[in-house]
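Box S1 | Example of a co-folding query
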Amino acid sequence: MGAHILVVEDEEKLARFVELELLHEGYQISKAVNGRDAYRMAMEEDYDLILLDIMLPGLNGLEVLRRLQQDKPVPVILLTARDAVMDKVAGLDAGAVDYITKPFAIEELLARIRVALKLHGKTAVAPASVQEPEEGVFRRGKLMLSEKRHQVTYDGQEITLTNREFQMLRILLENQDIVMARDVLLDRVCGFDYVGETNVVDVYIRFLRSKIDEVFGIKLIQTVRGVGYVIKSENTEKS
Ligand code: CA
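Box S1 (continued) | Returned holo structure for calcium ion
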């Protein structure tokens, strides 16, 4: 079970969006839409992290933060409005571990959550995969790719890939957490002399997803819209 995060946000759409993204990452989510509920819930339940909007009806986020710091400290990431410099300063002074300015890219929020949990929380998400010392072996969670044996397994179960699918997976595994642009993947998988559309990359990604993600119920390869693809080192699949 992933970390339990309380999302405190009165903008319904934003709260829902964040909730879905966090659920997808394997976190457990509770929501509050005002400061009083947030404070009450945080006192009753042990959350690993609180995402706390500052501009809230009733009790504002900073006030909730101050009370919690006094009564029951818990890691808090503040959601602040753009240009609200004083809020950020006040928030950090009041004990927030981090803040993020709205509007934010969800990837940035997820990254900050991971950092905050790693530094301040319990080890909530399974530890990131450790690169095996054996040369040419790449791991990510239960997935293992061996160049020498030209073999890919998930939890010991062999996955049959074509040569290009294998190469694409290897490049992504070798560069975990680095977004690989489509044209880079294309060059490295198909060669510089490849003549054709870069969407051939999307096709191979789709094949990989159908052979790995769909079969094992994980989200291995992430799409970074307009750029390319990335495999994140954190073991974020739901278990
Ligand atoms: Ca608000």
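The chain is about 40% helix and 20% strand. Residues 152 and 158 are 6 Å apart (CA to CA).
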